[in-house]
Amino acid sequence: MMAVRAVNGGSLFRSAASPPLLTFCCRLRHFGSLQFRRNSELGLRFPIFSCENQFLGYGGGRSRSAHSLVDCVMEELADWRCRRRVRANVKVRLTSSSELLEDKLVNRELEKGLLLEFKKDSDRVLLGVAQRPDGKKNWMVYDQNGVTSSIKPQQITYIVPGVENFDQTEISKFLREAQENLDPTLLEIAWVELLEKNKSVTAEELAEMIFGSSEPLESYCAHLLLSKDEVYFSVLETKGFRSIYGPRPTGQVEELLRKKLAKDAAEKELQDFVQLLLSAKAKPAHAKPPKSSWMVDEKIQYKIESLEAYAIDAWKSDEQRKTAGLILKAMGLTKSASSALNLLINIGYFPVHVNLDLLKLNILTNHSGEIIAAAESLLSDSSDPDEMNRKDLTHLKVYAIDVDEADELDDALSATRLQDGRIRVWIHVADPIRYVEPGSTVDREALRRGTSVFLPTGTYPMFPEKLAMEGMSLKQGEHCNAVSVSVVLHSDGSIAEYSVQSSIIKPTYMLTYESATELLHLNLEEEAELKILSEAAALRLKWRCRQGAIDTSTLETRIKVVNPEDPEPSINLYIENQADPAMRLVSELMILCGEVVATFGSCNNIPLPYRGQPQSNIDVSVYSHLPEGPVRSSAIVRIMRAAEIDFRKPIRHGVLGIPGYVQFTSPIRRYLDLLAHFQVKAFLRGESPPFSAGQLEGMASIVNMQVRVVRRLSSSSLRYWIIEFLRRQPREKIYRALILRFIKDRIAALLLVEVGLQASAWVSVGAQVGDEVDVKVEEAHPRDDVLSLKEVIRN
Q1: Where in the sequence is the domain holding 240, given as residue range(s)?
Q2: Which residues form the RNB domain (predicted)?
Q3: Which of 15, 62, 462, 721 is the most exposed place for a label (fewest CB within 10 A)?
Q4: Which residues contact 459 (CB under 8 A, 6 or more apart)?
């Protein structure tokens, strides 16, 4: 048979029905400059080719011009077609676009044994043999996969002509032979001829043109070529199972070819990327490519970032979403965020325990080079504008009490007993204003962040780490700048006198809550100051309770994850009881400091973020039947009203039982505390406050939005790691759980005492709020936030 096809951008003419009369390769010129030459015998114009090889005559080689070569090929092609048509006694009529097409659209009736193509679903087209009718219109079909199913007539896309009683066992062989004969570039030559003649064509007619036969196999091959073609032909009309195709205009073909080339290049690029993914996925954990390696090439970076955006539901454009979808499909994965996430984990781009919320919420985890440089510059400046006005308190014994992994220490405490028996306490707060001026580069960055972020896997400070640690933070045994709030207490715990001043201190001890509690229990004579601090805290708590304060102390979980990038990192879990002596000591004196600053601001008309919390709707006596601690606190917190902020004057904080409150003790960690320091320090220097009440309100709204986001992140991260901790425990392990309340029927909200996590479970009849029950973990899936508990009934 004669075949005409384009290979690698060229056209290859070859005769398979006779000895190798000619074999050569020639390249088509770009369509924009394509020239045609008329062939008189066939009555059509043919493109002029620029030959690159010699023309080889049978039995010897000789050079030929492109024109004579075309003439030779066309003469043999015409002669060969003529012979085939005579033998086959087939008459093919190409219909012009102006003629009626009805005679070409006559459909064959469905009958048993027909070989037909049909749509199985939106993505699959199968070949099958008609078996028998199924109802009035449907037919049972045996397909290439050996499956018999019922199809509707409208699912049929083509009936292979010239076939009766096709052997269904031969379907696969027929398909294989068809695939072997497919050569889409054959359409190029047919398109040239049909475009010149302005003719339309059916699959059978095309088969006769390019294969010299309209036998079943050739006709189906032509159908496949036409139905899959996206460049040269378009469907003019379809009726039932038959379609008529027409050649597209030259300009349209040029444009489609350009698009096809771009599409093919993109497809190759996609396949190359898929191979990279498969290669990375197959490697062991220690040999995975580093994350940075995916960022070297811009195109690879775009694809990997598209997958990342898909994994966290944060794509920036439809194109990015589409790119991720194509990658997942090419990898044989479902188009879902979880598929993208698991893929990124499997190639080592994400660690197994990647914090998705950290990515979704766009939390800043690093400081830019500009901010770090500005911080370095501040550290190199040794001047202190408050040096002459700082009160020297280095003679005091100073206790800094915090969690053991605290990186930045904001506050410390001192106490003495006066001759009249009253207690004087000092709350020393780190003085970042020594380095940071309002509106400076570092200040604007701190405002943008709003707060430091504390997660089980790490800390992301509000200020650059070196500035916070080396410049601002309080350090044991070193002279440190501070703002010290001094308070003398009456015997009933109320405030007798106070002062606020810039100071210099020398912290004596850096204690954890656990070690401070232990020292209090030991009651050592040499640590009398710590005992006085504890006594002052007890006085304050009693006084606040008389003022209507509500105790909401509960259990608090703290987790430290070591090597969080590892698949199985070490998890250190700590449970802190807020009623613990050391924790109570610190919290009481921080509240005292907040009250003093609010009073100081009010007396001096300083705009500050004054916090308050209405209490009018809380009747604590209603909950007196509940056990003190987490159970009662949980019930009260559920009905507490949200806190309020006024920037002109103090407002009562009913829950704390004090007339006013300003957060002041964490200026390195919280921006609103820093704002309070800006205002107070300006007054102490004899300057006007840098911000008006209105300006403070505007900045506070920005900060509070960010704080809410960080709070949500901290909560979800803590819960993730607690569930991961539980997942690793033995399945038979039993946990104590307090019943906080009943949600519905016997489904109760529980507090797991050993891990400080709230969850829910069904509890047996007879159990009441405040009771303790035993539970075990049935399921724990941190990624899906699933924790299933079951009560254990002891005999």
Answers
A1: 114-251
A2: 390-686
A3: 62
A4: 407, 452, 453
**What is the C-alpha separation between 224 and 178, in angstroms, rounded?**
9
524-562 burial code (b ≥16 CB/10 A, e <16): eeebebbbbbbbbbebbbebbeebebbbebbbebbbbbe
Of 432, 409, 415, 395, the C-alpha closest to 506 is 395
73-83 pLDDT, tens digit per residue, is: 455 555 544 44
**Domain identity same for 316 and 444:** no
Instruction: Specify the CATH number for the domain of residue 772.
Output: 2.40.50.140
Return the closest-CA partner of residue 750 out of 731, 767, 765. Answer: 767
Maximal C-alpha separation, the chain: 131
Q: Is the pLDDT of residue 230 over 60?
A: yes
The encoded tokens of residue 239 equal 């009726």
Examine the domain organization and report whether 628 and 704 are in the same domain.
yes
| CA gap 750, 737 in Å, rounded | 6
Closest CA to 531 of 406, 383, 385, 425: 425
Q: How far is CA 526 from CA 335, 381, 397, 443, 773, in A?
A: 67, 39, 11, 42, 44
Residue whose entry in the numeric block shows the structure tokens 């280095």: 394
Instruction: Give the pLDDT band (50/70/90) at residue 72.
Output: low
The pTM for the full model equals: 0.76
Residue 599: pLDDT band (50, 70, 90) is: very high
Contact 690, 675 (CB under 8 A): no
Name the residue among 391, 437, 495 with its Cα closest to residue 674: 437
Q: Find how far residue 654's CA is from the centre of its chain.
A: 41
Q: What is the pLDDT of residues 384-440, one digit of tens each?
A: 999 999 999 999 999 999 987 667 899 999 999 999 999 999 999 999 999 999 999
User: In the numeric block, which tokens belong to residue 39?
Assistant: 């062939």
Are 661 and 738 found together in one domain? no
Amino acid at 92: V
Check residue 553 and give its pLDDT: 87
Give the E-state strand segments of 343-473 in sequence order.
391-392, 399-402, 411-417, 423-430, 453-455, 458-460
Residue 23, pLDDT above cutoff 80: no
